[in-house]
């Protein structure tokens, strides 16, 4: 029995490694396609039509928030049921989420269409045929609503750790969208409407794939059954509302920062912040992939009452996410002037300063990356979400009063970092109050290694004066790799890495 448990843990560890690799391959392809896609879109549509599409995309931003929140919710509840080994419960949970999402899709169409039409009629400035705006908006909303129906299937795939399925659909969608956008440059007349149709089709395409795959491979879970217990619907809605508050708080901080910079300074600084936000968004996505592959295992282990493994995975997720963020952030901390000089023809004011501070803020947040998964597994998220995200909202309010007193724009992000530190300190104690989580394990396995490596690497900042940028980066990565290997990794983790490198070398050499 003991050998069986060890074997199961080895398999799940292998799955985490494979899923991480799949996620990073997907991210690399999507990132390249995204860069080219933006260029071809602007070339095909022109500034006016591309700007119109961007405005309409902003209108439906809140729809995408609902989508993100509900994916997390579906993943949590379905993973809990699967972790308990109860197929009937998993089926009831899946159908509960499906019914909720059908109503969300219908509600979105009924509410968003009149509101969107009112906004377009009164606030959108467009020199072309305004009827195009209505058509594009209607197409986009219907596609978004259709994508909501696929959320429970997406949650099931995440819970079952079938990352290859939704990663494949994302890659295919990105490549197809890129090809059609390129063709749009020299073909077709009504380019904006066709562009909207292409985007809408690619938005809805994953839902069709998820539905077909899950209905074929997970028939026991996706079979139709009507759940009459209304408390189950209410539990999902309450959980979603709590997560939604967190999502809104984060948006309030990011969008509020842009509004505050514009309010107290000028649009040139907004351009600098936009550049910094684009960098931080890409870096955040890279680091999130490390957490995403471990996340289902945290929930399943908790559902199976394997608290030791669940807590270990939380600590591992926090440590891995932090070092993933730390490693990819190094060029933007040490040599941002060189990076921005290669990337941009003219660098907007404060771009480098804002980027550095946003990266530091993300590093502070990433050290607690695995804790949210554990809280979601417990289901007791109300106190956690209200306490932590209220601090996030307060950072914006305090930032407003700081800038009103005449402080420089970077002080807004100093305040963000300060509040992120407060959230980092508060999170473990909040979790301790609602569960049996061991703070000591988090400190020893995550905090100490992360802080130790960071402090040891601080002297690299002083080498900038003496070394060329790329020599500095080479030396820095070598130094960081050695530091992480000998300080941050435990002996069994080092052995795991060495053994796998030996296997690869033995296979190909």
Q: C-alpha Rg, in Å?
A: 24 Å
Could you report the average pLDDT, rounded to the nearest whole number?
77
The proportion of strand residues reads under 5%
The strand count comes to: 0
Number of helices: 19
Low-confidence segments, ≥5 residues, pLDDT <50?
1-11
| Helical content band | over 70%
The best one-word shape is: globular
Span between N and C termini? 37 Å
Structural class: mainly alpha
Short précis:
The chain is an all-alpha fold.
Please characterize this protein's 3D structure:
The chain has helices at 2-59, 61-83, 87-123, 131-149, 151-159, 163-184, 191-217, 219-222, 230-264, 267-303, 307-334, 336-343, 351-366, 371-378, 382-404, 410-434, 439-457, 469-488, 491-508. It is mainly alpha-helical and 509 residues long. Helix 1 (2-59) runs parallel beside helix 6, helix 1 runs antiparallel to helix 10 (267-303) and helix 3 (87-123) runs parallel beside helix 9 (230-264). The model is unreliable at 1-11 (pLDDT under 50).
List the helices and strands and how they pair.
Layout: H1 2-59, H2 61-83, H3 87-123, H4 131-149, H5 151-159, H6 163-184, H7 191-217, H8 219-222, H9 230-264, H10 267-303, H11 307-334, H12 336-343, H13 351-366, H14 371-378, H15 382-404, H16 410-434, H17 439-457, H18 469-488, H19 491-508
């Amino acid at each position: 029995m003991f050998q069986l448990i060890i074997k199961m843990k080895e398999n799940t560890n292998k799955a985490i490694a494979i899923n991480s690799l799949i996620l990073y391959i997907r991210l690399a392809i999507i990132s390249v396609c995204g860069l080219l896609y933006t260029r071809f879109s602007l070339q095909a549509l022109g500034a006016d039509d591309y700007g119109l599409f961007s405005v309409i995309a902003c209108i439906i931003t809140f729809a995408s928030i609902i989508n993100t929140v509900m994916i997390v919710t579906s993943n949590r509840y379905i993973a809990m049921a699967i972790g308990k080994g109860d197929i009937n419960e998993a089926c009831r949970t899946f159908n509960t989420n499906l019914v909720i999402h059908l109503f969300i899709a219908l509600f979105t169409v009924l509410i968003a269409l009149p509101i969107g039409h009112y906004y377009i009629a009164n606030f959108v400035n467009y020199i072309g045929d305004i009827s195009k705006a209505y058509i594009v908006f209607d197409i986009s909303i219907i596609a978004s609503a259709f994508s909501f129906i696929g959320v429970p299937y997406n949650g099931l795939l995440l819970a079952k750790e079938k990352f290859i399925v939704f990663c494949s659909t994302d890659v295919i969608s990105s490549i197809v969208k890129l090809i059609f956008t390129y063709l749009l440059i020299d073909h077709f007349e009504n380019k904006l409407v066709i562009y909207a149709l292409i985007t809408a089709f690619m938005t809805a395409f994953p839902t069709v794939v998820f539905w077909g795959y899950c209905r074929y491979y997970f028939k026991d879970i996706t079979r139709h059954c009507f759940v009459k217990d209304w408390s189950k619907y209410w539990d999902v809605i309450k959980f979603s509302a709590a997560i939604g508050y967190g999502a809104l708080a984060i948006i309030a901080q990011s969008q509020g920062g842009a509004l505050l910079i514009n309010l107290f300074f000028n649009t040139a600084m907004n351009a600098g912040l936009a550049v910094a936000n684009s960098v931080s968004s890409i870096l955040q996505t890279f680091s999130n992939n490390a957490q995403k592959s471990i996340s289902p295992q945290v929930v399943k282990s908790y559902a199976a009452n394997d608290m030791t493994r669940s807590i270990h995975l939380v600590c591992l997720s926090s440590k891995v996410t932090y070092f993933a963020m730390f490693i990819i952030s190094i060029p933007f901390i040490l040599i941002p002037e060189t990076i921005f000089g290669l990337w941009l023809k003219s660098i907007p004011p404060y771009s480098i300063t804002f980027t550095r501070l946003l990266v530091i803020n993300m590093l502070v947040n990433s050290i607690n990356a695995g804790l949210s998964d554990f809280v979601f597994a417990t289901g007791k998220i109300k106190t956690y979400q209200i306490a932590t995200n209220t601090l996030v909202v307060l950072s914006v309010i305090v930032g407003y009063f700081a800038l009103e007193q005449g402080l420089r724009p970077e002080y807004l992000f100093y305040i963000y970092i300060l509040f992120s530190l407060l959230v980092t300190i508060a999170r473990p104690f909040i979790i301790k109050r609602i569960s049996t989580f061991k703070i000591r394990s988090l400190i020893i396995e995550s905090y100490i290694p992360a802080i130790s490596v960071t402090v040891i690497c601080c002297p690299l900042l002083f080498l900038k004066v003496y070394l060329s940028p790329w020599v500095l980066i080479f030396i820095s990565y070598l130094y960081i790799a050695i530091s992480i290997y000998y300080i941050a990794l435990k002996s069994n983790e080092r052995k795991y890495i060495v053994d796998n490198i030996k296997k690869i070398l033995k296979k190909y050499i």
